[in-house]
Amino acid sequence: MIRLIGADRALQDEYLAQLNLAFPGWGNAAHFAWCYRRSDDPLPADLMVAIIGGVPVAGLAVVYRQAQLGDCPPRTIGVLSGAWTIPAQHRQGHFGRLLAEASIVAASRGACLLLAFVTGERGSVGELGKVSTRIIDAAVLTAPCGPGEGDPETIPADEAARLFAGRPVAAAAARIVYAPGGWQAQMLGRASGASAIRMGCDQVGVVSAEPGGTFVLDLVDQRPEAIVAAVRALALRLGPLSFYSADLATIAHLQARGFSAQPARVFVIALQPGPLADCDWAVAAGDRM
Q1: Within this chain, do residues 191 and 274 fall inside the same structural domain, yes or no?
Q2: Alpha-carbon dihedral 119, 123, 129, 131, rounded to 10 degrees
Q3: What are the tens digits of pLDDT across the range 234-271?
Q4: Which residue, 24, 227, 271, 284, is most buried by CB atoms nearer than 10 A?
Q5: What angle do CA 253, 187, 103 make, to 5 degrees?
Q6: What is the Cα–Cα distance from 99 to 107, expressed in whole angstroms?
Q7: In the chain, how many domains are there?
Q8: Same domain for 127 and 34?
């Protein structure tokens, strides 16, 4: 049986406990609330669990976002998140059943597609590949040791939001968009803490210590050379630092300049026909969760 958690506090607590077992250090109750119980999201997140004999054995969440391609009106999408299965129930098909249910639930909420962000090889890859309309290669890129550039300084959240709102966007790639205040909540409102750091006149980066390492969550200037300079400058101040990209030209550029790359993929699962299912995606690390 698959059940939506809703407001069931006991199941929410169990979901959080299982996330920390599956991903040690995933986060506390404040991080759970930031991920799945935020009022600025377009729709409340849907958390679902597979139950056998009254015991939750696997879980999956859908977080709702707005996405836009060029000047087209924004559409509601779902982002898959927080998948787990207890060890004794691995390879029993629970993720596939949860994924099918997530597609039905998200479609009923008006979502036109689901996105899943996967780094490395995980057990979910096979099931995601079966139902995906498109699979986009991506990478987590880590800065090499060496001299940085610039003199980073922290800036207020409202100033950072204004600068990010005014940056140019790629017309040919879809992007996740936020309501007023939503970008600040997503990038800077994390329970783990995040900072907006200025590097020169035209570059600002958002940096956060995530369970998988310290990430540059977003950058104002996304030109490849600007990314190299910014991440190196931040790494000089903050230590090992990673940047996420689903743009093959950017990935190749950073690798050519000494960045190491861990393969990743974006799975696009179309729930309705439309251009968002067939286009490239300009996704920042902070958009994924």
Answers
A1: no
A2: -120
A3: 887 777 888 999 999 999 999 999 999 999 999 999 99
A4: 227
A5: 90
A6: 12
A7: 2
A8: yes
